[in-house]
Amino acid sequence: MSASNFLPLDANSVEAEAGAPAEERLISGDPKFRTWNVEERDGGLYAGIWESTPGKWRVEYDEWEFCHILSGVSVITEEGGEARTVRAGDSFLLRPGFKGSWEVLETTRKEYVIKL
Questions:
Q1: Residue 15 forms beta bridges with which residues?
Q2: Cβ(74)–Cβ(108) under 8 Å?
Q3: Which of 35, 40, 44, 91 has a beta carbon 3.0–4.6 Å from 68's, enabling a disulfide?
Q4: Residue 11 lies in a domain
Q5: For residue 66, what is the domain's CATH number?
Q6: Are 51 and 109 a contacting pair, CB within 8 Å?
Q7: Is 5 within a domain?
Q8: 86 lies in which domain range?
Q9: Chain segment 26-43, per-residue pLDDT in tens
Q10: Chain segment 33-91, per-residue pLDDT in tens
C-alpha cells in the first residue's frame, strides 16, 4: 500500500521540538517555542504547527512562510513599517527579506508552510 498524498497538520502525529529565540535576537521576556514539524521535504519545504509563550524577538526571513493563527495574539512589526496584530483566524504570508520583530502577547499557536 502506498502512502497517502493527503496529510493533516496534526500535532498529535509527531513529537514536539522545544526551542527559543537565539539569545542575540531576544528583545524581551522569556519566550519558549514548541514546533510540530509534520512535513519536511527535500528542496526546503516544511509544514506543521508552531507555538510560543509571551516574549519579543527580532526576526529575519530568507524563506517564504504562510501562517494561519490558530490561537493567541501576536504583534508582528516590519522594520520601517507598521505593527500588525494577528489573532485566531488570521492568515498571512511573510516574504523573503522580511525583517522586524515578533511579539507574542498571549501564547500563540499557528499552522505554517515554509518554502526555502
A1: none
A2: yes
A3: 91
A4: no
A5: 2.60.120.10
A6: yes
A7: no
A8: 16-115
A9: 999 999 999 999 999 999
A10: 999 999 999 999 999 999 999 999 999 999 999 999 999 999 999 999 999 999 999 99
